[in-house]
Amino acid sequence: MAEPTVPTIRNAAKAVVLHDGRILLQRAHWSGQDCYFLPGGGQHPGEAFDATAHREVLEETGLDVTPERLLWLREYIGANHDGDPSDHRIEAIFLCRLDSDPHQLGGHAQDEAQTGLEWVELEKIPGLNLLPHGLRDLIAGLTDEAPTRYLGDLA
């Protein structure tokens, strides 16, 4: 008899980086599909979420950003979405101010699935294979006055 799967919780921070009506996205090939992700990644023990967002954006994109405010707190519970029942993620998604040249892209520690970086016009977001899909309309409708929201278990 197989041992039951013990869920682990993985904390991460993601960044919404805007410039001239565009958002910075990672292009990726993941799970057999071409898609896009927000830059960001796993939190280290003892590291604050905003520091995670800063570090991950710098590593993956080469850009220096300052997380200015929390936009959304997202969970993903794999068992609720026909996914791996041990997969439980919590992501803090920050609106970040760009503090470096937006055209100097190229991080030193890109994700394995990452195939590139792209500044994408906000109005194109709903038609992209941006993962998770539940973020597409939120990003496309983003304004400076967007309130902080707990998104719950969002796939």
Please provide a brief summary of the model.
With 155 residues, the chain is mainly beta. Helix content is 12%, strand content 43%.
How would you describe this structure to a colleague?
- The protein is mostly beta strands.
- It has a single domain, classed as Nucleoside Triphosphate Pyrophosphohydrolase (Alpha-Beta Complex), CATH 3.90.79.10.
- The chain has 2 helices and 8 strands.
- It has helices spanning 49-61, 136-140; strands at residues 8-19, 22-30, 33-37, 40-42, 65-77, 87-98, 114-121, 149-153.
- Strands 1, 2, 3, 4, 5, 6, 7 and 8 form an 8-stranded mixed β-sheet that branches.
- Strand 1 (8-19) and strand 2 form a beta hairpin.
- The termini are far apart.
Secondary-structure element order, N to C: EEEEHEEEHE
Shape: globular
The CATH H-level homologous superfamily: Nucleoside Triphosphate Pyrophosphohydrolase
Secondary-structure-based class equals: mainly beta
- What CATH calls the topology is Nucleoside Triphosphate Pyrophosphohydrolase
Indicate the CATH architecture. Alpha-Beta Complex
Number of separate strands: 8
Report the major sheet.
Answer: 8 strands, mixed
Low-confidence stretches: none
How helical, in percent, are the residues? Answer: 10-25%
CATH class: Alpha Beta
Q: What is the mean predicted local confidence, pLDDT? A: 89
What Rg is obtained from the alpha carbons, in whole angstroms? 15 Å
Total individual domains? 1
- Report the sheet-strand fraction: 35-45%
How many distinct helices?
Answer: 2
GO molecular function, one term: hydrolase activity
Keywords: Hydrolase
Protein name: ADP-ribose pyrophosphatase YjhB (NUDIX family)
Cofactor: Mg(2+)
